[in-house]
Amino acid sequence: DQNLSHITSGFIYNSPNNNKVRVDQAFDGNLGSSLFDFANVTDDGLVLNKYFLISPSIASKPNCTQYSTNPGFPLIGPDFLTSARAVFVGEIDDEFNGRVTSWDILYQGRIPATVNVGSDGGVTGYDFFAVDLRTRVITRFFNIVLSEIEEDVFKFPLCTS
């Protein structure tokens, strides 16, 4: 629905080594997980997403679908800001993560975004405007653990559609 605010919480596993981003989330009484495979990108830049959903209750039969999409969760590697040709904006006091540096980029070369980076070099969040949805997207990360992620984290059930 394009006319509502969507608030979700969960976990993000971002692994440039595996070319994957897994997003586990709880929202509106649902449990969902997306697996974005950045090794499988269409010519127009859409990323394969396998989406696993348990709804309307935890006792429901899981549903798994797959489709290509423009993910709101980029693959963040060590050269993320450099390859996006980031421009330094300044330091800000982020209400959730304290003092961070802000950088402006064109995500996928076309979507203006502001990326916040903590003192440890980890991305603490990003903001962008989804023009087609007329929506401002604000993403913040908490309890960030910078470490290698095991490949097993990216094993997913077979999606048939």
The 3D shape can be described as globular
Strand content: over 45%
Number of E-state strands: 10
Strand order of the largest sheet: 1-2-3-4-5
Structural class: mainly beta
Q: What pattern of helices and strands is seen along the backbone? A: EEEEEHEEEEE
Low-confidence stretches: none
Tell me the helix content. Answer: under 10%
How far is it from the N-terminal to the C-terminal residue, by CA?
Answer: 22 Å
- What is the radius of gyration computed over CA atoms, rounded to a whole number of angstroms? 16 Å
Task: Give the quaternary arrangement of the chains.
Answer: single chain
Instruction: Describe the main β-sheet briefly.
Output: 5 strands, antiparallel
What does the average pLDDT come to?
A: 88
Structural description of this entry:
The protein has one helix at residues 80-83; strands at 9-15, 20-27, 30-41, 47-54, 63-69, 87-94, 98-107, 111-117, 123-130, 135-140. The chain is mainly beta. The longest helix has 4 residues, at 80-83. It has a five-stranded antiparallel sheet, with no helix packed on it. A five-stranded antiparallel sheet has the order 6-7-8-9-10, with no helix packed on it. The model has no long low-confidence stretch (mean pLDDT 88).
Features:
161 residues, mainly beta, five-stranded antiparallel sheet, 1 helix
Secondary structure blueprint with pairings:
Blueprint: E1 9-15, E2 20-27, E3 30-41, E4 47-54, E5 63-69, H1 80-83, E6 87-94, E7 98-107, E8 111-117, E9 123-130, E10 135-140
Antiparallel strand pairs: 1-2, 2-3, 3-4, 4-5, 6-7, 7-8, 8-9, 9-10
